[in-house]
Each structure stands twice: as structure tokens, then as C-alpha cells.
């Protein structure tokens, strides 16, 4: 019996078109995986809100900020220092993306600091940890200037250790002030 004309394209043409479409979809998926931008490669300026930092212009912040490392190691990943968008808060440094680690120098005394506060000592530097949603801020409390290091919960201990080493080398300890 001869093939009937139905007006539809020949079966062979439909199969070829389907194979080409699947091959195209696979190629797009492979290219997107190969060329995917890693979050850490996002090195555009980081927008940060200003917070009160009355001692940001102090000699201690002027010594600490440039001494901080250009890179931090967090859970085996290298986090590069980020440019901060204008108007940049003074005495502020950030590393990594998309969840940046941020150090702000010259802050007011944290209200959570009391004689009974549970402090952590890292490399001879005393910190007051204050937990937030998705991140924690570690306040430097035993130097002439207060600083806050905000780290995402996924950061691990490497950034705190590296910043503590820099603080210990750069700023002299002082008795706690309540």
C-alpha cells in the first residue's frame, strides 16, 4: 500500500530535527557548566551600609587596616580582598563573594560586652562572638580600638585565625573596658 500524504513532514525529517535539538541542548548544558562564573570571581565593588565607627580614623585603625592580609583562607577556599563601593565606610575591609567577610575598625564598644561575657582567645587576641542570622560578628575587645569581624556561618575558623594573627602583630593588648 503506498504512503498516504497527510501534510506532515516525513518521519526521517522529524527524527533528524529531534536529534539536532537534543544535541543542541546537551551542548548548551556542557558550555554552561564549563563557563559558569564562580561566586568568588565576582570581584565588583561590594556595597556596605555605614555603621557608627567613631574611632575609624584612629592610629590603631590606620595601622591595622593596611596590615590585614590580601587573602583569607576559609574552608580551603582562598578569599580575595574586595573593593568596597563608594561611599565606602572608613577603616573597613572585605574579602570573598557572594557572602563577604567584613572587618570594620573603630566601632563603639559592643553593648554585649559585660564582665560576664564569654570571650574567645585566638592567638592571644580576645574576641566577643555575637551570633546573627546566617553570620556572626566577632568583636575585638582587648585593644585600644574595637573592631568587628563579620563572617558567614559557612566560613570556618580560618579567617578569624588569620585576622587574629595580624591583630596580635599590629596592636598592643589593653585591659578590657566595661
Give your account of this protein's structure.
- This protein is an alpha+beta fold.
- The chain has 2 domains: 30 residues; 125 residues.
- It is 26% helix and 25% strand.
- The chain is elongated and about 95 Å long.
- About 5% of the residues have low confidence.
- Pfam families: DUF3515.
- It comes from Amycolatopsis alkalitolerans.
Number of strands: 8
What's the average pLDDT? 88
Task: Please give the domain count.
Answer: 2
**Overall radius of gyration:** 27 Å
How can the largest sheet be summarized? Answer: 8 strands, antiparallel
Q: Indicate the percent of residues in helices.
A: 25-40%
- Helix-strand makeup class: alpha+beta
Catalogue the unreliable spans.
33-41
Distance between termini? Answer: 99 Å
Percent strand: 15-25%
Order of helices and strands: HHEEEEEEEEH
Helix segment tally: 3
Shape label: elongated
Strand line-up of the largest beta sheet: 1-2-3-4-8-7-6-5
Keywords: Membrane, Transmembrane, Transmembrane helix
Protein name: DUF3515 domain-containing protein
Q: What topology emerges from the helices and strands here?
A:
Blueprint: H1 11-34, H2 59-67, E1 71-74, E2 77-82, E3 92-95, E4 101-107, E5 120-122, E6 125-131, E7 135-140, E8 146-152, H3 158-170
